[in-house]
Q: What sequence folds into this?
């Protein structure tokens, strides 16, 4: 079991710095995941050529794929580092494991990126339920069991960025809000109180960077670690957008 | 970083333009493609059958050109210009994410590009619009024979029927996949299961239309109703002396003798 394996990491010291690759060799452990591997490297940051380096900066929090902090490119495609098991990766590609920061966000340092664009997108689509004031307005409307079952998966989104990282339509120069924000807009439009602001959200969805920027590549739904039915949300948003645009046209 | 105020090349009409793009791809352009390939395939029922169809279209004269411009060329140009803009607004990544959907997405863009090049060449080659540029091989009054001759030419040594086959398949794929995505775009197929079903339907549509299109290419390539004089002065075309089937064309290589045709195009030196 105790076998060594190589990890190649794309590093960058500061947001505007140049990037470089560094290679480390670490002792495999039972059930080791990429976050653990990064911890081992931090404990002794010596590269394969024996050079003393610095600990690699990375994000992680929950270590169980619910917080979304640890997304990075593992062997070239995006996923959570905390659930990427070294042995499984080595089975498919024994020579080495490559780690890179996500490519669609500004790099802060090493594997840490700034996902503000996603949070911005959430605020653009008003991804919340508006509850103003302090007075008790009694119990809210009931949500049917069926609706709950439809909505629950959408609530599990952890804004990890995997979907937008894999989306060919989302990149630093694009204004596209991305599948996660579209899905959240659908979630809150289907919520009985959230629906009070449905038109506001549809206005954004039918605007620049909205639903029309999706090119139906459907990568997002494949990579989402929470298995959120993103393409269903996208098509639902497309349907509401169609209806909304026609309604707008005739009501103006 | 993009925020609410970030600039966009399409101002406030982004959504509308994208829906018009989708619509243009289906309604005038897609319907035209289906009709066009179907009409062309009547060559397989003989030269007369095809001539009858062409006559029906050319009965529209003198309104044919306006109809073509408004019904085909403008929507096509609109769709193509916006199509290229959409293409370049994305960052295809099939290398990293080899999913079927991603391949379809990338292929939709590539086939759009191929379609664009093909259609430009094709208009020069067959439509009278190409006349002043030395193209316009097609004479609607002698439809089958001239189209057949045109199909027997070659470009840089590549037989044109092969290039036409590629063009047809690119357009057909683009339309079939475009229909599938348009059902999602407009919010008609929402769930994965309906999208799978519509995928099968669009695939069958594509295969059938592809067969119809290829049958026309083959139909013209092998059409032997006419023996025509064509002076091959073009260097590349010297290699193009294939004999098709057994009837008719056993002449000397450069000359095939004319019988049925009255077309002035064909005597043109090119
Ligand atoms: C089977 C292969 C094809 C053959 C034999 C063929 C033949 C022709 C001919 C003979 C014309 C001239 C019609 C006229 O002047 O009345 C024409 C026009 C045209 N073709 Fe094709 N075509 C083929 C495939 C395609 C494809 C795949 C497209 C893609 C959309 C296309 C688009 C056009 C357009 C836009 C015009 C001009 C509009 C018109 O004249 O109706 N063709 N074609
Ligand atoms: C001439 C060059 C062309 C280019 C550059 C082009 C480009 C594109 C692109 C990039 C898309 C994807 C749009 C998206 O998914 O958001 C698209 C969609 C589409 N195209 Fe084209 N295209 C061309 C010609 C054609 C032709 C000849 C047809 C019809 C035969 C056609 C029919 C469609 C359809 C139906 C869609 C689907 C629209 C949707 O998803 O809602 N296109 N085209
Ligand atoms: S939709 Fe899925 S992939 Fe996208 S941010 Fe949410 S959890 Fe991550
Ligand atoms: S379906 Fe749309 S949002 Fe999802 S990856 Fe494709 S282009 Fe991006
Ligand atoms: S650490 Fe929270 S998802 Fe990986």
A:
């Amino acid at each position: 079991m105790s076998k060594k394996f190589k990890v190649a990491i794309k590093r960058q010291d500061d947001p505007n710095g140049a990037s470089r690759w560094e290679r480390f060799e670490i002792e495999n452990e039972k059930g080791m995941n990429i976050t653990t591997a990064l911890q081992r490297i931090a404990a002794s940051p010596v590269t394969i050529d024996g050079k003393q380096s610095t600990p690699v900066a990375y994000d992680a929090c929950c270590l169980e794929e619910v917080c979304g902090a640890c997304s990075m490119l593992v062997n070239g495609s995006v996923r959570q580092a905390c659930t990427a098991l070294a042995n499984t990766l080595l089975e498919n590609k024994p020579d080495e494991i490559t780690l890179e920061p996500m490519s669609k966000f500004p790099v802060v340092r090493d594997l840490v990126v700034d996902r503000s664009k996603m949070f911005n997108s959430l605020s653009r689509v008003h991804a919340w339920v508006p509850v103003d004031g302090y007075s008790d307005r009694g119990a809210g409307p009931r949500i049917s069991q069926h609706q709950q079952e439809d909505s629950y998966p959408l609530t599990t989104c952890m804004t990890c960025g995997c979907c937008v990282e894999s989306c060919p339509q989302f990149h630093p120069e694009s204004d596209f809000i991305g599948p996660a924000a579209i899905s959240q807009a659908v979630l809150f439009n289907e919520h009985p109180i959230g629906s009070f602001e449905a038109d506001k959200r549809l206005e954004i969805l039918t605007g620049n960077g909205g639903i029309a920027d999706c090119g139906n590549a459907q990568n997002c739904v494949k990579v989402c670690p929470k298995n959120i039915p993103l393409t269903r949300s996208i098509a639902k948003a497309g349907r509401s957008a169609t209806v909304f645009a026609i309604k707008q046209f005739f009501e103006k | 970083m993009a925020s609410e105020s970030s600039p966009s090349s399409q101002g406030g009409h982004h959504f509308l333009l994208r829906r018009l793009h989708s619509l243009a791809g289906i309604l005038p352009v897609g319907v035209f493609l289906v009709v066009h390939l179907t009409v062309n395939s009547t060559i397989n029922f003989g030269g007369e059958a095809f001539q009858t169809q062409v006559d029906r279209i050319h009965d529209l004269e003198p309104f044919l050109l306006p109809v073509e411009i408004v019904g085909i060329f403008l929507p096509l140009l609109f769709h193509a210009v916006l199509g290229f803009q959409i293409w370049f607004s994305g960052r295809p990544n099939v290398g990293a994410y080899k999913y079927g959907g991603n391949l379809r997405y990338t292929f939709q863009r590539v086939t759009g590009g191929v379609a664009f090049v093909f259609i430009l060449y094709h208009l020069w080659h067959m439509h009278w619009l190409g006349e002043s540029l030395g193209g316009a091989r097609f004479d609607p009054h002698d439809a089958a024979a001239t189209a057949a001759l045109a199909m027997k030419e070659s470009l840089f040594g590549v037989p044109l029927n092969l290039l036409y086959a590629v063009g047809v398949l690119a357009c057909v794929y683009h339309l079939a996949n475009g229909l599938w995505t348009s059902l999602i775009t407009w919010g008609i197929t929402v769930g994965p299961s309906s999208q799978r079903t519509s995928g099968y339907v669009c695939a069958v549509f594509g295969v059938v239309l592809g067969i119809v299109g290829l049958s026309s290419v083959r139909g013209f390539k092998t059409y032997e109703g006419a023996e025509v004089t064509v002076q091959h002065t073009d260097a590349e075309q010297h290699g193009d002396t294939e004999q098709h089937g057994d009837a008719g064309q056993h002449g000397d290589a450069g000359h095939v003798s004319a019988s049925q045709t009255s077309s002035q195009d064909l005597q043109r030196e090119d």
Chain A has a mean pLDDT of 95. Residues 230-251 of chain A form the longest helix (22 residues).
